[in-house]
Amino acid sequence: MLKFLVKNQKIEILEREVIASDQISFVTLKFTFDGDWKKFYKVVQFTQCDETYNRVLGFDGLSCLLPAELHAGAVKISVFGYDADNTSGLRATTVPVTLNIRQSGFVGDDDSPIPPTPDLYTQILQKIEEITRKGGAVPDMSEYLKKDEIQKMIEQALANSETVIPSDYVTIEKLNDEILMIHESITPIRMDAHSHKNKEILDATTASYTLEEQKKLAELNLSDYVTVRKLNDEILMVHEAITPIRLASHSHQNKELLDSLDADSLTLLPDLQQFEDVTKYDIQTIKESIAPVVRQAHFHENLAVLDGITADRIKKWDSISTLQTQLNGLSTELTVWKNKCSSNSDRLHANEATIDNIISELDEIHEKINAVPSFDTVQETLKAMQAEIDSLGGNIQTIFQSGAGTLERHGDTIYTFYNNGYRSLDGFAQSYPNFCSAENDYALYYNQSDFSWAGTVYTMILKPFSISKNASIVITYQSGATASGELYLMRKISGRSYGELAQVLYDQIQSGNVIKLNFQWLQSTDFISILVDCSDVAIGDYYLVWKGVSDNTHPKIKVVKVLGG
Hints:
By secondary structure, the chain is an alpha+beta fold. The chain has helices at 120-134, 147-160, 172-193, 199-204, 211-218, 228-248, 255-260, 272-295, 303-308, 311-348, 352-371, 375-393, 406-410, 425-431, 448-451, 498-511; strands spanning 2-7, 10-15, 19-20, 28-33, 41-48, 51-58, 63-65, 73-82, 91-92, 97-102, 396-401, 414-418, 421-424, 444-445, 456-467, 472-479, 483-484, 487-491, 515-516, 520-521, 524-533, 540-549, 556-563.
């Protein structure tokens, strides 16, 4: 049995099991509904490839069978419901969850057909009959609206939908709700319409009549009693009398407008082609306005380095070239001055020692000038750095990234083990609201508010990633203290669901059959990135697991990446 919790617009899988194909009426799905869902008329919908199958739960139903038509592969399951008391057409829906059906070993010895899942209309009629039977009366199905009558009503509604106010027309779901209400209102009328001319005698007849009394009853004039055929005729008359009442009760808020419509007024309807042209124009305008935003929305792994290249820095680099040119010119002038001083020292009666000191100092200045790198050298160095940064971009695998959309990206592929229980990240975050929250930009936070003191949570990346030669793992995090950490790798295995895979990973860690990496938490008030060496790890596909503890470290993990060799 598979168990699900329906809350708001999410379906959470509470218990899952392996599902094999070719089953018939064998797999049961049980649902628990929270909040407003309890008042809805509910339907479970199964979608595989281009086929859709429905299972009606009704108001009180909590379980249904898996449709026999589903074959091996992925199946999406969702739930929708309607509130019969809400006249505005309220409909509740959910985000679908995916189940995987595996190929069974069944080999049939004949071509016996699979019993088809009844369509939604048939299931609703079955529910109506079930409700009527629970009320103690066996329903006469001739009293219910036939499917062709519903089809006529739908076709009439579609014909009327060409008017300018389509919001006043009923949907197919509303028709189903109205049919149910009509059946409920007809039941007491049908019961009151059932009568006999000899009603008093029939009411007085009990099982205690003796054989003699029954003989006397047989001698009565039977012409005073109605026959079964007369009863059917009377019931038919009641149905015919009810039909105009039901039709007259049909109304619209824009009834006067509908009554005034004729063939001429239909020519006043808007030109759909003109509407389509205007719409295309508006869409083209929107695309042109979005285009510059899209062009600016690109991303670099070395974004921080690129952002650091500012106009001031470029201006300083340009000034280096200008300064070098000026210094080279000054050096030439100083050399000329030196020669002039040497040649004129005798004539000027200058102090030779002082001149030699000046010349020595000038030589030192000249050496320092020559040590300044040229502008071309600086440019080549920057190009080499950029090439090295760009070379890293193609070998980076991001296996966890916090921020908006974290639960959508990783909700089904990251699992946790806490208090002897396995949960997906999506379900775990709902139970422990500070672990992966918008307040912390959806970082994984092993906090004491959720887990008290020293709570241990194993976090498992179940989507495999590749380790190449000389690879490293980069983890960006905060930690309240410096302490040894636990970081593990395990080779990819096939044929397991995420829940089964989480169990295997934890068991292998406990038995020591995994690769333990050299890793520790470093105290930091800001987010820091540390590099974990994987050069000794064999090339292949792996899962990653780490242990977070709500002690003095209480780490907060923001990003986990893998750098290839």
